[in-house]
Amino acid sequence: MNSEKTPECVVPATLDGWACLHDLYQVRWTQLHKLSAIEKSALFAETKTFLQSITSPAKGHSGYFSMLGHKADLMFLHFRETFDDLNEVELALRQQPIFEYLSPTTSYVSIVELGMYAMTQKIFDELIAQNLKIDSDAWNAAWDERMQDQFNRMKGRVFTDIPSDRYICFYPMDKRRGEKYNWYAEPMKDRTQMMFEHGMVGRKYAGKVQQIITGSIGFDDWEWGVDLFAKDPKVFKDLIYEMRFDRASAHYAEFGPFYTGLQFLADEIEPFLQGKLPK
User: Fold this and answer.
1) Which residues make beta-bridge pairs with 79?
2) Which of 50, 136, 199, 206 has its Cβ near the most Cβ atoms within 10 Å?
3) Where are the alpha helices (DSSP H) in 112-187?
4) Sign of the C-alpha dihedral, residues 175, 179, 184, 187?
């Protein structure tokens, strides 16, 4: 849990959960096709056993996706307790025979995050009303207690399972820091209101799409990662299009590349490696 407070402004706190790695590859199909039927059978069985072993560790989850378009063929999505655990599963894949037939295309490192704009402002105002001095021992103790309460209440959202929906849309994004529009220079209350309006659009799609936000400031090239999961991929287009018109997006959002894929189970890796769509 991270927060920072100054008399002039309030930096919104975040509740942090799983360490997250998106790991994307092209399959070297030509090399794979050169294997004999016996070699393929052994390779596919080994790969299936490996994926089964990492899907549901004691603390974390892994998911597998057949990707659309030229950017990647296969994506691994890993949630783990620490970056050490992420690196462990990353290195384990690289020791597998199948890795000879995978070419990395991109990756993304982040932490599952829940932004606390409104709650940060609320707690800040409450402590000011109690005449507590900012950054005093009493302030920090009261602040930490309230944030711990929020963490306990929201723990299931930052240590979430990977949704089982068929389709995924992943993209990184930034908040703009331009000469005219600079998100970080706007007053906290204005940013809070814009995030509220942004969230209200998302609520219209409750039950149709599940969203996981990850924070990547200091970890990767963009500030956030967004994962959307749905049973109908058209919902991604509808949601993101509508959000383009709210102030937080229209003036302040900058988007990276989009990746769209179809989720499959570890047990279905064999048909995928045979060039068949996992059902």
Assistant:
1) 20, 61
2) 50
3) 117-129, 137-158
4) negative
Tell me the C-alpha distance between 227 and 207, whole Å.
15
Place of tokens 């189970």: 265
Backbone angles phi, psi at 60, to 5 degrees: 140, -175
AA letter at 24:
L
d(CA 175, CA 167): 26
Give the tens place of pLDDT for each residue, 195-218: 999 999 999 999 999 999 999 999
Banded model confidence at residue 279, pLDDT cuts 50, 70, 90: confident
Report which secondary-structure segment, H or E, holds 147. helix 137-158
Catalogue the active-site residues: 171
Place of tokens 């005093």: 136
Report the C-alpha gap between 82 and 160 in whole angstroms: 15
Q: What is the pTM of this model?
A: 0.93
